[in-house]
Amino acid sequence: MSKPRSQTQIVGEIHDTRLADALGERYLAYALSTIMSRSLPDVRDGLKPVHRRLLYAMQQLKLDPKSGFKKCARVVGDVMGKYHPHGDMSIYDAMVRLSQDFAVRYPLVDGQGNFGNIDGDNAAAMRYTEARMTDIAVALLKGIDEDAVDFRSTYDGEEEEPQVLPAAFPNLLANGSAGIAVGMATSIPPHNVSELCDALKHLIKFPNATVGKLVDFIPGPDFPTGGVLVEDRAAIVDAYKTGRGGFRVRARWETEDTGHGTWQIVITEIPYQVQKSRLIEKIAELIQTKKLPIVSDVRDESAEDIRMVIEPKSRAVEPEMLMEQLFKMTDLETRYPLNMNVLNAEHTPGVMDLREVLNAFLDHRHVVLKRRSKFRRDKIEHRLEILGGQLIAFLNIDKVIKIIRNEDEPKPKLMKAFKLSDVQADAILNLRLRQLRKLEEMEIKAEHDALTKERRGINSLLRDEVKRWKAIGQEIDEIKKNFGQKTELGKRRTEIGDVPDIVVVPLEAMIEREPITVVCSRKGWLRAIKGHVENTSELKFKEGDKLEYAIHAETTDKLLIFATNGRFYTIGCDKLPGGRGHGEPVRLMIDMQGDHDVASMLIFEAEREIMVASDGGRGFIVPSDEVVAQTKNGRQVLNLGKGEEAATCSYMPENADTLAVFGSNHKLLLFELDEMPIMTRGRGVILQRYKKGGGAVLRDVKAFVFDEGLSYPYGGGERTEPPEDLEKWYGKRAGAGLKAPRGFPTSNRFT
């Protein structure tokens, strides 16, 4: 029986260290791995490692555009087994995205099968789908077998993978990128490659071109889903200058005539990365909750192209106003962020501006051109060396044959006899007999001359930087020709629009107009009952409570509450609690502090005049537009003296010329309305004077036309005192008044 191993043998060497140091060291390693190998793209090819490994694996599998498709599971297996030791689903998800024409502007993978859709549906499992590379992916890999880039060992050391692709295509800006690392993130929208090529050509000619000039060539992103860019040009230039900013994108829409004076909105393009199904669900939810009452219906009539139909509730609604509200409340308008945080050629992360990104691509193409040229020159020199040896063999064919026939080791003899190199001697010994003919000799001489000429051209290119940049310009022209505006793929999809004007949507347009009756009890319970209730006797209240106010209104109206503290409070009638139950206490809806109570309630009417008064007998006239409050705290209008409370407020009738003031002492005073000041805030003037210590207070005021008489409640109906009977109560403002005529209400109020 073997002896058990010691504790030291099991766990190995133990080091004492602070927890903070151990955590910091490991977290730093994790952060670096995330930044360098997962989340941030390389500025040169615009790819993250998983995308680069995918394309390289597909090239190794010979999945070029002219070949057949292979199962995605085969590709994912190769990528995971050889290059990317992570989950297969993360690899497949990356592959799926590279094939979706609504997710990437210029797809790098040509998919066959179900690769998902703009509604957010997932792709089919990788065993059901097939893929191959697109022409753009081929352009990214062009020259990879010609020592264009450096390679490194894979994670297991058995294979090699490229550190970066040669990238003849400006992929970073053309397809964009997004990712979140540790402590940093990147977000680059896609752009139009034809515009990028124009900017690159200009930058070759003018290396110090400003970002503002480059924006003349690249006016903004070009999203695969189209839409309309509505960002200000100055903001776009600033974003490209700093490498940080954002772009406002709106859906493309049009008005479609449906006959008989009716119309509907048809949305044909939606903003980038917005799922159509969720967008429709959001609009439907807004309609259901009556937050979008100007819209009656939304439906999806999309087939291959997007077609979302929105029907207005009324043809009187302006299409522009309807769309402005949709832009405000839904993802029909989004803001795509710009954060050009990338890895540079030294694998250092940092935010670059537009010119730096374009220059980084050009510098990479310059390096690739030099490396490929040197690789080709080395291949030519190797071939010329072989051809030179073969020409010597043809000129001395008899002697060569004699040495080969007679010598046991012919190679050293050949090298010595004709001063051949090791490579040349091997080439001669490997010649087949059929090649020893005159025609072959002529072909070798022609090939030798052609390669010599090509070598001179390469040497000239490597010596002259101007020629190299000219060659790079020609490569860019080729990219523009193959993928530019004249091709179906390269046409600009996102329209460069103007900054939209601010459209003010009236509140009434956003609330469904319905008749209601605003009901408030004596104890301050407030509710809104549907319809205009005529018979209020059937309304139910809490025990010991009864009706105080019942006002006919619309859901689009505003309710004005005048409290005994002299403040006006405003509540939208659409926000009042429903008629089921007893409603809610008014104090929960407004910030009415202390022991104050409701003095009066009115429905707001614009450009009217309101008479306000305190129980101390003071008051004034205030324009109705000056009493609307924007907050729950209300708006102070009537200032009060010590011990005073606000008593009443009421609208001034048109053509009114007389004011009636009624006190708790049952005294009535009439005087000319012209004696009343119009103010926006204050204590006002004395309306009726009361005997000191008598305890009398003002109860109510009423403006009326004197020649039409004064009306007041009487015996369940209404009674009107004729003008000639009112003469004795007519006096000057601030008088005491006289006892009211018989029949006046004992409540000392006019209503």
Structure characterization notes:
This protein has 751 residues and is an alpha+beta fold. Among the domains are: 40-169, Topoisomerase II, domain 5, CATH 3.90.199; 252-331, Gyrase A, domain 2; 508-739, DNA gyrase/topoisomerase IV, subunit A, C-terminal (Neuraminidase, 6 Propeller), CATH 2.120.10.90. It is built from 19 helices and 35 strands. It has a 4-stranded mixed sheet with strand order 14-9-8-17. A 4-stranded antiparallel sheet has the order 10-11-13-12. A hairpin with a 3-residue loop joins strand 18 (515-521) and strand 19.
Summarize the SSE layout with pairings.
Blueprint: H1 7-11, H2 19-39, H3 49-60, E1 70-71, H4 72-83, H5 88-99, E2 109-112, E3 130-133, H6 135-141, E4 151-153, E5 160-162, H7 171-175, E6 177-180, E7 185-188, H8 193-205, H9 211-217, E8 228-229, H10 233-242, E9 244-250, E10 252-259, E11 262-269, H11 276-288, E12 295-300, E13 308-312, H12 319-329, E14 333-339, E15 341-343, E16 349-351, H13 354-395, H14 397-406, H15 410-418, H16 422-429, H17 438-463, H18 465-483, E17 495-496, H19 507-510, E18 515-521, E19 525-530, E20 547-554, E21 558-563, E22 567-572, E23 584-585, E24 598-603, E25 609-614, E26 618-623, E27 635-636, E28 646-651, E29 658-663, E30 667-672, E31 685-686, E32 698-704, E33 710-714, E34 717-721, E35 738-739
Parallel strand pairs: 8-17
Antiparallel strand pairs: 1-3, 2-3, 4-5, 6-7, 8-9, 9-14, 10-11, 11-13, 12-13, 15-16, 18-19, 18-20, 19-23, 21-22, 21-24, 22-27, 25-26, 25-28, 26-31, 29-30, 29-32, 30-35, 33-34
Helix pairs in contact: 3-4, 4-5, 8-9, 8-13, 8-18, 13-16, 13-17, 14-15, 15-16, 17-18
